[in-house]
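Comment thread on ticket #2218

A.B. wrote:
> Attaching the input chain for the structure job we discussed in standup.
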Amino acid sequence: MAGTTACAAMASMPPAARADPGPGDRPVLARVWFTINGQRRELELDTRTSLLDAAREHLHLTGSKKGCDHGQCGACTMIVDGRRINACLTLTVMHQGAEITTIEGLGQPDDLHPMQAAFVRHDGYQCGYCTPGQICSGVAVLDEIRAGIPSHA
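C.D. wrote:
> Ran it. Output below, let me know if you need it in another format.
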């Protein structure tokens, strides 16, 4: 009964009163800059935009994929300041001034990165959806080992 009363009350309100969003409903925009695949980029984004969505939707770098959107599958893995991260779990505004590498920044079809070439040579790409994330993760873990970062253990 209470739900019916609330619906009736909403229906009797003028459309302007029902549709007016509160101040908390409007996105907060922020200007952020970083270097991605060797190019300095500057974007004005909703502060809730993930790094993955910024790359795919705003920069049209679609190699990194959205799989689970929970940081479990690794399809979104990018290299940020030399460390591998799940780009679906990190906000773009957290990476002001960062150095970011996606699969597009590792190599080109006629000049593959050694990790990309190894995946091709050993049929390591399976269906291919998560392969960009696996390759970025592989590149970064080898760099982490060389740098003495124990995250690979």
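A.B. wrote:
> Thanks. Noting for the ticket: Residues 27-147 form a domain with the Ubiquitin-like (UB roll) fold (CATH 3.10.20.30).
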